Amino acid sequence: MSPRNTRPRKGAFFLLLTLVALVASGCARGKLPQDTLSPVGPEAIKLDHLFKPVFAVAVVVFVLVNTLIITCIVRFRAKSDDDAPVQVHGNAKLEIGWTVVPAAILLVIGVFTVFSVLDVNKRASGSDVLTVKVVGHQWWWEYDYPDLGITTANELHIPTGRMVQLEMTSADVIHSFWPPKLAGKLDVVPGRVNYMKLSATEPGDFSGQCAEYCGLSHANMRLRVIADSPSDFDAWVANQQKPSVPPTGDATVDDAVAGSELFVARGCSGCHTINGLAGAAGKVGPNLTHLQTRSHFAGAIFPLDEKSLRRWLRDPPGMKPMNPDNGQGMPNLGLSEADITKLIAYLETLK
Amino acid sequence: MSATTVETHEAHGTTHETNTGLSNEKLAMWAFLGSECLLFGALISTYLLYKGRSTTGPKPHDVYDIPFTSASSFLLLMSSLTMVLALASIQRGDLRRLRLWLLATATLGGLFITGQVYEFTTFYKEGLSLSTNLFGSSFFVLTGFHGVHVSLGILMLLSLYGLSARGKLPAERSEVVELVGLYWHFVDIVWIVIFTVVYLIP
Amino acid sequence: MATVLERPDASPTPSSATDVPLLKRPRSLDGFWGWLTTVDHKRIGILYGGTSLIFFLLGGFEALLIRTQLAQPDNHLLSADAYNQVFTMHGTTMIFLVVMPLSAAFFNYLTPLMIGARDVAFPRLNALSYWIFLMGGLFLYSSFLLGGAPDGGWFGYAPNTSITFSPGHNIDFWVFGLQILGIASTVGAVNLITTVLNLRAPGMTLMRMPIFVWMTLVANFLLLFAMPVITVALFLLMFDRQFGANFFNPGMGGDPVLWQHLFWLFGHPEVYILILPAMGIVSEILPVFSRKPLFGYPVMVFSGIAIGFMGWGVWAHHMFAVGLGPVAVSAFSISTMFIAVPTGVKIFNWIGTMWGGSLRFRTPMLFAIGFIAMFTIGGLSGVTHSISPHDRQQTDTYYIVAHFHYVLFGGSMFGLMGGFYYWWPKVFGYMLSEKIGRWHFWTWLIGFNLAFAPMHWMGLQGMPRRIYTYPKDLGLSLPNLVSTIGAFTIAVSTLIFITNIVTSHRKKTPAPNDPWDARTLEWTIPSPTPHYNFAEVPIVHSVDDFWHRKYTEDENGRLVALPKPPTEASTGGLSDTEESGHGIHLPSPSFYPLIVAVGFPIIAYSMIYKIYPVAVIGGLVMLAGFYGWTLEPSAEPEPEHHAVEEPAELVAAAAVPALEAGNEPAAEPPAEEGGDQ
Question: Which of C80, C340, C553 sits opposite A219 (nearest CB)?
């Protein structure tokens, strides 16, 4: 068997093509709502400042290693079967060198990392801090503002310019709260409370999602963080603090009134709270008192409009995979079209 | 390849010549016991981590009968002594004493297991089951797992006894007794740790 | 497991006529029954390799399902439920049923050959490992037919995997399947550690062992100590699910984070279990095709050991987003960074091996070089994970998926594929096609990068793992599509590999003993390896002993070929070894390892379906297997040789440690002498 040399140059060409394709795919950035490389919140920017230099170091090492490999391939290709290369068994100086130098680089990175860890883990303090309790559920998020008496779901409102301290836990399995443009993720673990700082300097609507596999509909457990200017936030708080006013009138002609009655009669109230509606105090599902102030529902995945709500009420597990037989998610209540119309009419009053 | 291989080896006759000087069986036993250390280590760590975290009773010292468990622990420790005596007997070629000490070791082990069964039953009657609380879960799984190990050891001891009684455990095969002895001592040592951690440390 | 090791010790002498064997000793070494009852480490290696390649196709098919589903946003080819099963089984398969057993294939086949032994220390235990592994794999896959495969992720985080949130049997299959596979791995580890430490040929000191054997040793020590940890985790979960214990039940004070600690205390050493064998393979291939010794052999050994040790101190870097507190997070960040040091040393030493050599780009070499380049990427992205604050952006995203595929595919699979091409001629006696091999390599490399490089971007741009679908708004449709195209390219590449096997098998270009001008002992013997391995046990004088029989260095350190010793040709010649092979007494085939292994799935099924009497049957099957095992001597006396009575030859054969490699001393002459008591 005579060793025939392969032609790595041809291969290298293909490799180049691949790289071009990769870069193209990387650069084809339209809107990237969850891009960690262009953070917006101060907490996320801090992380980014740590990451980018390290990433640069990694790229340098990558280029170095691959240059060496390519040099080997080009320079040391066998000329003949009887090549007699010098038999180098090792080189203590070199080997110590490439042990010590990386260790030194890593030590520097390590020091910065430790400082950053301490910073990230420090809890927010001060009278200005807004505390929000975050509770993960299969498959939606609950937010309680204990100082403001507000409970809402999936869309977290925060004021710009104020530090928000999230106190996070889970009602069932482990989830992970992750608004990438504002902060790194943190798990919500049943039986534990984790603390996460969140802040935004500019108003905006930041999307995120559950980042810890949490069962069937993990992919459908999204979230939004809406940073409002202080005045907008105050207005939002003022509205949220109001109980809903159940519509009044003749249930036979007014769909909304009929809907409010159906809400209790068909058992919706067993899972959902609506402040102001007698008998609607369930804690299993999202609080719907001000449903219409949210842009999305069901784990922030469907736009909150009549069409989506109708589809949802017809067959929730058909629209979003859930396992209501095991108490995981909303069951199909077998509602008639007429009932659905009435319920939607009522839900549309929850402003 | 050198043709001298055969000659160099002929000199050793039929004895085992391993690189470590330990027989394969003994080395494997040590490796296996090393693995077992992590098995018990993980279980004991679990117990320690969950210590005092039960949300409901009964708590450990509501059910423990320390003098009783001390006594059965003492029996198990004594069985290590009889195990040593068994090995010494076979190494001396005293096969009758070997059988005696093997039986003594198995009996002491059996008494320990009987004690454990009694203890488990008592605890269960006092309202502690596997699912009662964290203590129940971690206690029964840890000590039960150890109990299974002791039981397997008893089976081995009885097998050795059976072999010896049928004349199939000559002095030349004392290593088999040694191997079972290694296992037995290991299980005993683990019990010292478990007894200390589970029963004695408040 | 205790029983597995213990029972053989209690075996009676085989000479007794009163012992009636349960089953007749299998006579045929060939055909179906020959393979089913083999205790030959080479055949077991081949069985491991073949089985894991089939599982590789299954796991690969699952990968294609995943990538097809994610090729487009809002795709609903697979339901969420099906997707969750598929990704769980993909991970579980690739780790436990592909890379681990594929490494085991190389361990089994090569370790005895490389250390100059005739088999592993416990040949029947070796067969048992394989059959338990196979049973575990079949058991896991039977879940697809029995109501649904595991769907809790390969990491099975509690409490999602608890009975409350996963009431079906899916997770049960995972819990029991992994326990069965863990037993197989532990038994294998005990066996291989004993083999390497005890059965080396004369002169083969530890520091003369081939680097692959070193990595085998380290990986098996990791297995030995890591498997019990996950066994305990699974054991606790099993008690939670089957018997209502509360270990991971937060409502009763249980802590789900304990599961994570136990799982990753196993899981991180596991990463090194998966990569060290491939590193060993690459370290064998590079010197051969560079015609230079491995650069810094001692440093390579010690960095491997260092990785093995440090691998135990980094597990919590999988948990940076769990909220462990600043002290733990800092400590694990630092330890994670520093495990990069020995890894980096290896990479530079590999380059040092090639530097100044005479590089021949045969297929094994291509895969080895591919390994270095790709693994470097995986290693470097690993360093970026160690900056724990930012890891909270990275973890559980596709950036991690990219990272570990660069380690496990770009690393392990490249290395193992290189190993296939390199040792194929030794194993099967014919060469794999170089031409098709090159096609395989380049499509493999391109497909791999197309599939996984975009995942770096996808992750950093906010795509979490384990989601069965993603919205168009995420803006990641194109990289996902590219990744899918890459996955299918890998599939094509795999087909090319299969084509190579098929056509090369038809063509059967005979392989010489030493087709690559290699360095280690396995190349001194004929291809394919004769069933007795070495006609004469070699005596070893240095690292790369075979190389030093062929070459020396001049005063400038240049390579000088030695004249071929005439004896070399004759001892290497087929007719001669055939002749000397006659006196060699090898362990005989046995049914019992298979029978014992069958007991495991029976018990597992009965536990899952809570039909406990069937568990008793399973236990009895195992017990019967052990009973037969202990009564059966590991090696049958060969009557014709007893008749011929060639004392010198027999004694010589008996002196070779591997010959009495049985579990029981029973098979040896002293046992017979002992009957006089």
Answer: C80
A314 CB burial (10 A radius; 0-12, 13-18, 19+): middle
Decide if C671 and B152 are in contact by the 8 Å CB cutoff.
no
Along chain A (351 residues), what's the average pLDDT of each consecutive run of 10 residues?
46 61 54 92 94 94 95 93 88 94 94 94 91 96 96 96 96 96 96 95 95 96 96 97 92 92 94 94 94 95 95 95 94 95 95 90
Determine the number of helices (DSSP H) and then strands (DSSP E) in chain C: 25, 2
Residue pointed to by tokens 């603090």: A241
Q: What average pLDDT does this structure show over C246-267?
A: 95
Max Cα separation, chain B?
Answer: 75
The per-residue pLDDT for range C387-442, each reduced to its tens digit, is 999 999 999 999 999 999 999 999 999 999 999 999 999 999 999 999 999 999 99
Residues contacting A131, CB < 8 A, separation 6+: A145, A146, A147, A164, A165, A166, A167
**Confidence class of residue C645 from pLDDT cuts 50, 70 and 90?**
very low
Distance, in Å, from the CA atom of C564 to the CA atom of C546, rounded to the nearest integer, reads 12
CB contact under 8 A, A22 and C348: no
ipTM over 0.90: yes
- Tokens representing A25? 């795919």
Contact C247 B138 (CB under 8 A): yes
Query: Interhelix angle for A42-75 vs C363-386, to 10°?
Result: 160
C9, C231, C673 ranked by CB distance to B25: nearest: C9
Nearest residue of B to residue C627 by CA position? B159
CB contact under 8 A, B10 and C524: no
Give residue B92's pLDDT.
Answer: 93
Token pair of A216 as six digits: 């069937």
Q: Give every CB contact of residue C530 below 8 A, 6+ residues apart in sequence.
A: C577, C578, C581
- Judging contacts by C-beta atoms under 8 Å, the chain B residues touching residue C656 are 9
Beta-strand ranges (E) seen in chain A are 130-137, 140-145, 150-153, 155-159, 164-170, 175-177, 186-188, 194-198, 204-209, 222-228, 296-297, 302-303
Angle between the N-to-C axes of helices C123-142 and C592-608, in degrees from 0 to 180, rounded to the nearest 10: 30
3-state SS class at A84 = coil
CA atoms within 13 A on the CB side of C120: 34
Question: How many CB atoms are located within 10 Å of the residue A144 CB?
Answer: 17
Chain C residues whose CB is inside 8 A of the B56 CB are: 252
Q: Model pTM?
A: 0.91
Sign of CA dihedral C107, C108, C109, C115: positive
As given in the structure block, the two tokens for residue A167 are 């106190």
- Find the closest chain C residue to B162 by CA distance: C10
State whether B180 and C9 contact (CB < 8 Å): yes
By C-alpha distance, the chain C residue nearest B3 is: C536
Amino acid identity of residue C478, one-letter, is L
Among candidate residues C540, C560, C564, C542, the one with its CA nearest the CA of residue C551: C560
Q: CB-based contacts of B10: which residues, under 8 Å, 6+ apart?
A: C648, C651, C652, C655
3-state class of C552 per DSSP? strand
For chain A, the chains sharing at least 3 beta-carbon pairs closer than 8 angstroms are C
Residues 6+ apart with CB under 8 A from C393: A36, A44, A47, A51, A180, A184, A185, C460
Q: Which of C3, C19, C191, C197 to probe the B interface (max B CBs under 10 A)? A: C197
Is A46 an 8 Å CB contact of chain C? yes
Kindly state the DSSP code that residue A141 receives in the 8-state scheme.
E
Q: Which amino acid is at A341?
A: T
Instruction: For CA atoms B19, B25, B26, B27, give the dihedral sign.
Output: positive
Encoded amino acid at C433, one letter: S
CB of C520 closer than 8 Å to CB of C116: no
